[in-house]
Amino acid sequence: MLPRIESAGLDGWMVRLFDTIDEANMPWLTALVRRCEASFGDALVDLVPSYTTLLVVFDPLAMAPDDARRRLTALLADLQPDEQREDVGPRELPTWYDPSVGPELERLAERGEMTVEDVIKRHSQIEYRVFALGFAPGFAFMGRVDEHIAGPRLETPRRRVPKGSVAIAERQTSAYPLVSPGGWNLIGRTSAVLFDRHREGFSLLAVGDRVRFVPVSRAEFERLGGDTQGVEASQ
Q: With 80 as the cut, is the pLDDT of residue 88 above it?
């Protein structure tokens, strides 16, 4: 039966709200995040939302585990979804789509029997929802990608994926906020600063955000401060 509260150690409870990934889950998850922040107060250490769950980490010296569970049970009893604010537009990520920064662009095009331009169009015309943050600081798991351009993760992950790389894995898409290893299909690069230690909240994106990838030329990408490291000057 859902929702269900599961043990996540001495200082955490995992609240399982759903068993399938769906954009309709987001208003419920964001509502629970907001209510936990208000209810747990200084005893709250961290909240980690995902596609279907919310991990609640608390200070066991400030709140006993059984008390934390009872508090979550009470919050779930009358939980209502957050209202969707349609007046707030999507966050736009300027993206330079090109094989020089997106080495899997052509492979995904061949796989879907379409042109590179078709892949770019299908990826950039969808408004995505941020389902979860994880893997690396500021890395937002977004969905859902057009099924015609979806592709499995690479059999052998790269040791180094450049900062800002826009990528696809199955029906998910994201952009790498920092240089890191990674096994997703790279299709472009964004100039957006996705993670900044001097920014409140650090991450540009938050769970529940709506996001659009906006195609730009290389010149515009560079003007916006995009990283062209590793790209041939003649490109």
A: no
